[in-house]
Design a protein that fits this description.
This protein has 157 residues and is mainly alpha-helical. It has a single domain, classed as Cytochrome c-like domain (Cytochrome Bc1 Complex, Chain D, domain 2), CATH 1.10.760.10. Helices cover 51% and strands 3% of the residues. A two-stranded antiparallel ribbon has the order 1-2. The chain is globular and about 40 Å long. The structure holds heme C. The site of heme C has 19 residues, from helix 3, helix 5 and strand 2. Heme C binds next to helix 3, helix 5 and strand 2.
Length: 157
Protein backbone atom coordinates (compact mmCIF):
# COMPACT_ATOMS: atom_id res chain seq x y z
CA UNK A 1 0.00 0.00 0.00
CA UNK A 2 1.41 3.41 -0.93
CA UNK A 3 1.12 6.54 1.22
CA UNK A 4 -1.84 7.85 -0.75
CA UNK A 5 -3.95 4.73 -0.41
CA UNK A 6 -2.96 4.50 3.27
CA UNK A 7 -4.24 8.02 3.88
CA UNK A 8 -7.46 7.26 2.01
CA UNK A 9 -7.91 4.20 4.20
CA UNK A 10 -7.35 6.29 7.34
CA UNK A 11 -9.85 8.88 6.13
CA UNK A 12 -12.39 6.13 5.48
CA UNK A 13 -11.87 4.77 9.00
CA UNK A 14 -12.29 8.24 10.54
CA UNK A 15 -15.50 8.79 8.57
CA UNK A 16 -16.80 5.37 9.60
CA UNK A 17 -16.05 6.16 13.27
CA UNK A 18 -17.87 9.50 12.93
CA UNK A 19 -20.89 7.83 11.37
CA UNK A 20 -20.85 5.35 14.23
CA UNK A 21 -20.96 8.15 16.82
CA UNK A 22 -24.14 9.46 15.19
CA UNK A 23 -25.50 5.94 15.24
CA UNK A 24 -26.07 6.25 19.01
CA UNK A 25 -29.78 5.66 19.44
CA UNK A 26 -30.05 5.82 23.26
CA UNK A 27 -32.81 8.34 24.05
CA UNK A 28 -31.43 11.56 25.57
CA UNK A 29 -33.65 14.04 27.44
CA UNK A 30 -33.90 17.46 25.80
CA UNK A 31 -33.20 20.60 27.85
CA UNK A 32 -36.11 22.89 27.00
CA UNK A 33 -35.20 25.69 29.41
CA UNK A 34 -36.40 29.01 27.98
CA UNK A 35 -39.49 27.64 26.22
CA UNK A 36 -42.96 28.46 27.49
CA UNK A 37 -43.88 25.63 29.93
CA UNK A 38 -46.90 23.64 28.73
CA UNK A 39 -47.96 21.63 31.76
CA UNK A 40 -48.84 17.97 31.97
CA UNK A 41 -51.90 17.83 29.70
CA UNK A 42 -50.98 17.21 26.08
CA UNK A 43 -52.00 19.91 23.65
CA UNK A 44 -53.52 18.59 20.41
CA UNK A 45 -51.20 20.67 18.20
CA UNK A 46 -47.74 22.19 18.29
CA UNK A 47 -47.90 25.48 20.24
CA UNK A 48 -44.36 26.53 19.24
CA UNK A 49 -44.78 26.61 15.45
CA UNK A 50 -42.38 29.22 14.04
CA UNK A 51 -40.78 30.00 17.45
CA UNK A 52 -37.05 30.44 16.73
CA UNK A 53 -36.01 29.39 20.23
CA UNK A 54 -37.96 26.12 19.82
CA UNK A 55 -36.26 25.60 16.44
CA UNK A 56 -32.82 25.90 18.09
CA UNK A 57 -33.69 23.60 21.00
CA UNK A 58 -35.34 21.10 18.67
CA UNK A 59 -32.24 21.09 16.46
CA UNK A 60 -30.03 20.02 19.37
CA UNK A 61 -32.55 17.40 20.50
CA UNK A 62 -32.84 16.12 16.95
CA UNK A 63 -29.08 15.73 16.44
CA UNK A 64 -28.80 13.86 19.78
CA UNK A 65 -31.75 11.54 19.29
CA UNK A 66 -32.92 11.24 15.73
CA UNK A 67 -30.05 12.07 13.35
CA UNK A 68 -28.52 8.59 13.71
CA UNK A 69 -31.44 7.10 11.80
CA UNK A 70 -33.21 10.00 10.07
CA UNK A 71 -30.04 11.82 8.94
CA UNK A 72 -28.02 14.85 10.03
CA UNK A 73 -29.95 18.14 9.67
CA UNK A 74 -33.03 16.00 8.96
CA UNK A 75 -31.69 15.14 5.50
CA UNK A 76 -32.59 11.48 5.24
CA UNK A 77 -29.74 9.11 4.58
CA UNK A 78 -32.27 6.54 3.45
CA UNK A 79 -32.20 4.29 6.55
CA UNK A 80 -35.44 5.68 8.01
CA UNK A 81 -38.25 7.76 6.46
CA UNK A 82 -37.52 11.29 5.27
CA UNK A 83 -39.05 13.53 7.96
CA UNK A 84 -39.01 16.56 5.64
CA UNK A 85 -41.84 14.90 3.72
CA UNK A 86 -44.16 14.74 6.74
CA UNK A 87 -45.36 18.33 6.56
CA UNK A 88 -44.42 19.23 3.00
CA UNK A 89 -47.98 19.12 1.64
CA UNK A 90 -49.41 21.15 4.54
CA UNK A 91 -46.69 23.78 4.47
CA UNK A 92 -47.22 24.30 0.73
CA UNK A 93 -50.86 25.29 1.33
CA UNK A 94 -51.75 28.96 1.68
CA UNK A 95 -52.43 30.19 5.20
CA UNK A 96 -55.89 29.38 6.49
CA UNK A 97 -58.05 26.84 8.26
CA UNK A 98 -57.27 24.03 5.82
CA UNK A 99 -53.53 24.41 6.33
CA UNK A 100 -53.96 24.56 10.11
CA UNK A 101 -56.01 21.37 10.19
CA UNK A 102 -53.50 19.61 7.90
CA UNK A 103 -50.65 20.60 10.23
CA UNK A 104 -52.69 19.58 13.29
CA UNK A 105 -53.15 16.07 11.83
CA UNK A 106 -49.42 15.72 11.23
CA UNK A 107 -48.64 17.08 14.73
CA UNK A 108 -50.85 14.40 16.23
CA UNK A 109 -49.29 11.64 14.12
CA UNK A 110 -45.76 12.89 14.94
CA UNK A 111 -46.48 12.98 18.68
CA UNK A 112 -47.83 9.42 18.59
CA UNK A 113 -44.85 7.99 16.69
CA UNK A 114 -42.27 9.76 18.88
CA UNK A 115 -43.91 8.76 22.17
CA UNK A 116 -44.65 5.14 21.23
CA UNK A 117 -41.98 4.34 18.62
CA UNK A 118 -42.57 1.95 15.74
CA UNK A 119 -42.47 -1.83 15.68
CA UNK A 120 -42.23 -4.29 12.84
CA UNK A 121 -44.55 -7.25 12.33
CA UNK A 122 -42.47 -9.35 14.77
CA UNK A 123 -42.94 -6.73 17.49
CA UNK A 124 -39.32 -5.57 17.39
CA UNK A 125 -38.82 -1.81 17.68
CA UNK A 126 -37.62 -0.28 14.42
CA UNK A 127 -37.77 3.13 16.11
CA UNK A 128 -37.45 3.60 19.88
CA UNK A 129 -40.32 4.97 22.04
CA UNK A 130 -39.50 8.26 23.78
CA UNK A 131 -42.47 8.54 26.17
CA UNK A 132 -40.29 7.94 29.23
CA UNK A 133 -37.65 10.58 28.36
CA UNK A 134 -39.39 13.42 26.48
CA UNK A 135 -41.56 16.13 27.95
CA UNK A 136 -44.31 17.70 25.89
CA UNK A 137 -42.00 20.71 25.40
CA UNK A 138 -39.32 18.39 23.98
CA UNK A 139 -41.66 16.72 21.47
CA UNK A 140 -43.04 20.02 20.17
CA UNK A 141 -39.57 21.57 19.91
CA UNK A 142 -38.55 18.64 17.67
CA UNK A 143 -41.62 19.17 15.51
CA UNK A 144 -40.91 22.90 15.29
CA UNK A 145 -37.37 22.15 14.12
CA UNK A 146 -38.55 19.66 11.49
CA UNK A 147 -41.13 22.16 10.18
CA UNK A 148 -38.42 24.82 9.95
CA UNK A 149 -36.11 22.46 8.04
CA UNK A 150 -38.99 21.53 5.73
CA UNK A 151 -39.57 25.18 4.90
CA UNK A 152 -35.81 25.73 4.40
CA UNK A 153 -35.42 22.83 1.99
CA UNK A 154 -37.08 21.41 -1.08
CA UNK A 155 -39.68 19.72 1.12
CA UNK A 156 -41.88 22.81 1.00
CA UNK A 157 -41.23 23.87 -2.58
C1 LIG B 1 -33.13 3.48 15.58
C2 LIG B 1 -33.46 4.34 14.46
C3 LIG B 1 -34.42 5.47 14.72
C4 LIG B 1 -34.31 6.52 15.61
C5 LIG B 1 -33.22 6.78 16.62
C6 LIG B 1 -35.45 7.38 15.36
N1 LIG B 1 -36.24 6.86 14.37
FE1 LIG B 1 -37.97 7.64 13.67
N2 LIG B 1 -38.22 6.01 12.48
C7 LIG B 1 -37.32 5.00 12.31
C8 LIG B 1 -37.86 4.01 11.38
C9 LIG B 1 -37.14 2.75 10.91
C10 LIG B 1 -39.13 4.47 11.01
C11 LIG B 1 -40.13 3.77 10.09
C12 LIG B 1 -40.77 2.68 10.89
C13 LIG B 1 -41.95 2.04 10.25
O1 LIG B 1 -42.65 2.69 9.45
O2 LIG B 1 -42.20 0.89 10.58
C14 LIG B 1 -39.32 5.75 11.72
C15 LIG B 1 -40.45 6.53 11.57
C16 LIG B 1 -40.59 7.80 12.11
C17 LIG B 1 -41.69 8.68 11.87
C18 LIG B 1 -42.87 8.38 10.96
C19 LIG B 1 -42.46 8.82 9.56
C20 LIG B 1 -43.46 8.61 8.48
O3 LIG B 1 -43.17 9.03 7.35
O4 LIG B 1 -44.52 8.02 8.72
C21 LIG B 1 -41.46 9.83 12.57
C22 LIG B 1 -42.36 11.05 12.65
C23 LIG B 1 -40.20 9.66 13.26
N3 LIG B 1 -39.70 8.41 12.95
C24 LIG B 1 -39.61 10.63 14.03
C25 LIG B 1 -38.44 10.42 14.78
C26 LIG B 1 -37.89 11.40 15.69
C27 LIG B 1 -38.45 12.79 15.92
C28 LIG B 1 -36.80 10.81 16.27
C29 LIG B 1 -35.93 11.36 17.36
C30 LIG B 1 -36.60 11.75 18.58
C31 LIG B 1 -36.67 9.47 15.70
N4 LIG B 1 -37.69 9.29 14.78
C32 LIG B 1 -35.69 8.56 16.04
C33 LIG B 1 -36.09 4.88 12.93
C34 LIG B 1 -35.64 5.70 13.94
Amino acid sequence: MNARSASILILALVLAAGAHAHGDVTPHPIDTTGLKPLGADWLPTNPYRGDTKAVAIGAVGYEHNCAGCHGLDALSGGVAPDLLKLDGDCLRMSAGAKRESCLADVDDYFKGVVLHGKRNSEGRYTMPAYASVFTQEAVWSLKTYIDARTLETAGAK
